[in-house]
Design the sequence.
């Protein structure tokens, strides 16, 4: 029952994050299309209710797998990771799935818009399933770490969704997967990735 509740809460969190990012994304402007003046549309006019922030200040991208190769991730977390698979959502959320022998799996995502909203949604979802994360100071604007699951199935599910997360302005870097990441390991990873944005 707890696993279903966890899955439902985390799915809602992901949907909220994607909706928020979609609401501020610049659909129609591909990375090869230059943005127009102030409103972000090629003609310079902003549709009613559209964001008036310049696209150039919002659009960032990162190849997470290249920025943090499997060998470097393995060294930080102390678990062998041998393969990577990159992904992106709407040129806003960039990720890399790292896998290795056994059930080694590390999933890292970098949301380059609506970072604070995504961070808050994850914290809320983890609290909703009775696995509130611990706040971490000294990393980004805000950061959290999930306690070590130590075999607890519900806690392992929460940590798999997000064992560490940090927000830097509009950017949110989240670490999850079946391989648990400690607060110090998470700090190393997010600070390394943030430095490459």
Sequence:
């Amino acid at each position: 029952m707890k696993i279903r509740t966890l899955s439902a809460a985390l799915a809602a969190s992901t949907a909220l994050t994607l909706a928020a990012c979609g609401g501020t994304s610049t659909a129609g402007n591909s990375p090869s299309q230059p943005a127009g003046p102030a409103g972000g549309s090629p003609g310079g006019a902003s549709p009613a209710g559209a964001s008036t922030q310049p696209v150039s200040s919002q659009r960032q991208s990162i190849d997470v797998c290249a920025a943090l190769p499997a060998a470097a991730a393995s060294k930080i977390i102390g678990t062998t990771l041998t393969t990577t698979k990159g992904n992106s959502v709407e040129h806003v959320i960039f990720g890399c799935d790292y896998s290795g022998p056994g059930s080694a799996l590390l999933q890292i995502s970098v949301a380059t818009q609506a970072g604070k909203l995504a961070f808050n949604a994850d914290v809320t979802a983890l609290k909703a399933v009775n696995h509130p994360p611990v706040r971490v100071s000294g990393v980004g604007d805000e950061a959290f770490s999930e306690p070590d699951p130590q075999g607890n199935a519900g806690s392992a599910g929460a940590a798999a969704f997000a064992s560490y997360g940090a927000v830097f302005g509009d950017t949110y870097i989240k670490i999850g997967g079946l391989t648990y990441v400690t607060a110090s390991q998470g700090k190393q990873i997010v600070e390394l990735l943030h430095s490459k944005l």
Remarks:
- Confidence is low (pLDDT under 50) at residues 1-58.
- The CA atoms of residues 165 and 174 lie 4 Å apart.
